[in-house]
Amino acid sequence: MQIVEAAGITVAIVAGACAGSDVERLLEADIRLAGDGATFSVSDVRDPVACAVRLTRLLGEAAAKELMLAARTLDAAAALRVGLVTRVVPGGRLGDEAATLLQRLRALPPLALAAVRDAVRAARVLTPAGALALEHDHFCRLVGTEDHKAAVAAFFERRDAAFTGR
Amino acid sequence: MGANAHTRWSLDGSVGVIVLDNPPMNVLSDDNRRGIRQALAEFREAGARAVVLTGAGDRAFCGGADLKEEEELTAETVDRFLQRGDETFRALREYERPIVAAVNGWAMGGGLVLALWCDVRVGSTRAKLGAVGVKVGLMASNVQLSRLLFEGRARDLLLTGRTVEAQEAHRLGLLSAVVEPEALMREAIEWARDIAARPPELTSALKRAVNTALDPVGAGAEA
Hints:
- The complex is a heterodimer.
- Chain A has helices at about 20-30, 50-60, 60-70, 75-80, 95-105, 110-125, 130-140, 145-155, and strands at about 1-5, 10-15, 15-20, 30-35, 40, 75, 85-90.
- Chain A is α/β, with parallel strands linked by helices.
- Chain A folds into two domains: about 1-105, 2-enoyl-CoA Hydratase, Chain A, domain 1 (Alpha-Beta Complex); about 110-155, Orthogonal Bundle (Lyase 2-enoyl-coa Hydratase, Chain  A, domain 2).
- The mean pLDDT of chain A is about 90.
- Chain B contains nine helices and eleven strands.
- In chain B, strand 2 (about 5-10) and strand 3 form a beta hairpin.
- In chain B, helix 1 (about 30-45) packs parallel to helix 3, helix 3 (about 80-95) runs parallel beside helix 4 and helix 5 runs antiparallel to helix 6.
- The radius of gyration of chain B is 17 Å and the shape is globular.
- The interface between A and B is medium-sized, with 28 and 33 residues.
């Protein structure tokens, strides 16, 4: 498994067997991609209870219990079904697909991207009201950025925008 | 090991098996509610490491509460009725060892609640899940579905009360496996044995951790 970062977003790319501490790193990534030959096993993670909590928040109770209690090995199709990865591609295309994804992330306005990442991570531990308040804070800040104005201008002029992170 | 008019239970090695036996639809009776609680208490005493819950026959896992019984409820009796259900559901949820539901047919209304409070569900190709509360002007299984699924999917099932067939239930994660009806008990026992083979204190800790993982931080401080 490889963890690659683009514009502050971590992407896990799983080609083969993902087990043990790799699973724990997988769960901390923002986006998870796998080749069709990937397998996943939670049977020897370092901290199974923390892993169970993380999985419940990530996938819901049903999938978390399915994975953690019997600790069976999942193939790529099963991992996709429960949501452990969000995309499975033929193994030979994994490198290209990952490169395309990273390129797309780098083309987005960096401030907005970071705000979305932080808000989604925070939502795991906030009440719905708390999550909404955080979203409003981010919105109020982002609406005044140069990147927002650049994106709106580019939209009306039907061209791509270049973002500066300001 | 034990039985009453509508429930029987036995021990298969380290796995306890409970059968709801009130055919043809295995409508949930007080004998079932009491039977489940008694079976779990006896399994605990006997040191069972996992439990399988299923329905007799191949039409229904559990058809839910008796609509005739529900119709006769009054302001005075409704609390006690809900409480009897809750005691049983809580017994499954709070039982120390994981519980596998073998969903052999219809699981609707209170029967769906029963299946959803189990820890892992496997189904036969005849399994049908229905959050039918709304169809009879009531509410059931909303608490469980909103925890097991994410919001969009939970709303779909709860607001329509539609029937979810085995393959869709598998895709949604409500069933962990779907097999032919004749293979269902073997599959369920296999899941239970896989769980029973792991350190019992670990599987108990994992069940507790998942049960409480979605509780909001500082619960009760905000609406």
